[in-house]
Amino acid sequence: MSEPQKGQLFKDDFLEADCRQSIYKIDPKEKMQTTLTFPIVIGGDEVPRVIEMELQDPIRYDGNFFTKQDVILTKEKTRLTVKTNRLLYDQWPTEIILLSEMEPHINVIELINYSKSIHKSRMNIFLEFIGPTLRNLLDEYKDKNQLFPYIHVKTYMVQLLRGLGHLHSYKVCHRSILPEKIVINKEKMLLKITDLDCSVKLPEGKAKFEGCELTHYVAPELLLRACCYDLSIDIWSVGCILGELLNKNTPLISGSTEIEVFHSVKKLLGSPKLDDVKDMGFPEDVFFILIKKKKFSTLRKICSDLRPEDLEFLEELLQYSPMKRPAPLSLLNHKFFLKLRDPTVLYLDDQVLPELFKFTERELEIQPELERICTNHT
């Protein structure tokens, strides 16, 4: 059986290989699958249960190992996101393992349930449905030639840092913080981090470099193939996302190869200093190679129309040295969030703001300084 192309609807025989009793109902007008009924094994129960789901969108094919679709359970009328992973060598999907080990958090996607297919060749992961991705919203504003609302940027950044702080408190490095991996409920102004497929737990705080997906959000030490990396690579990615939100929905960093992306970083931040190169895990020889064509930072020039506190906050995140990048929760005390920390600010464009500073006990234990913000809002 040939592998389906990206974005193509699955043929009947594809899911038949997974669940022989799959039943499709095709809407002749839309020419897409509208409902899907198949037997699955829920939570280790060996007796198959038949679950009927109404597809909200065509099934999306994302790479070689999983598919993803938004569905409504016909009986419960509950909307979920379902991911179907291929099981390789009986290994459980990383996302299930990590989400099962962590306590739920308002800014991290919640695992509802999971099931194995009849032939146990695939794992179905049922996640809560939130809404479109941040990439969808960025494209929407770009198509309309509009800026991302300034106060929305701050609201979503608080939630992104809180979600990331929760992952880091369990020594979980997401490794792929991208606009495509962040989902948003526009009505509730709620943000959640999702897609932990590439995430890894770092019990020792560091991990050996094993390659990474090339994006414009990758930390410089990964671009240069450092021997090790730590949790701070996620902070760099947050800085890249913030830069895109503040820079008229346009990424600050570009390039189609690792060398091109690093040169773009170098053009933005200038050449790294010797201490920065050492902090990234490289010997002095690499430093002298990197400064052959010395460049000076152009960040303030490119972002000259930003407010001083915005620029200062961006510079905190985008630092060569992993050791200088702050922890996620410590950044919530930055003056960038001063207006949101004002307990009298309860509405935004006639919309009630979410409870941004209702911290969990775990968060307060990690960052005791947050108690002051929490008390003010109470």
UniProtKB/TrEMBL annotation:
What Gene Ontology cellular component terms go with this record? cytoplasm; nucleus
Q: Which molecular-function annotation in GO is an example for this chain?
A: protein serine/threonine kinase activity
Domain of life of the native organism: Eukaryota
Q: Which controlled-vocabulary keywords does the entry list?
A: ATP-binding, Kinase, Nucleotide-binding, Serine/threonine-protein kinase, Transferase
Pfam families attached to this UniProt entry: Pkinase (PF00069)
Entry's family note: Belongs to the protein kinase superfamily. CMGC Ser/Thr protein kinase family. GSK-3 subfamily.
Protein known as: Protein kinase domain-containing protein
State the organism named in the record.
Answer: Rhodnius prolixus (Triatomid bug)
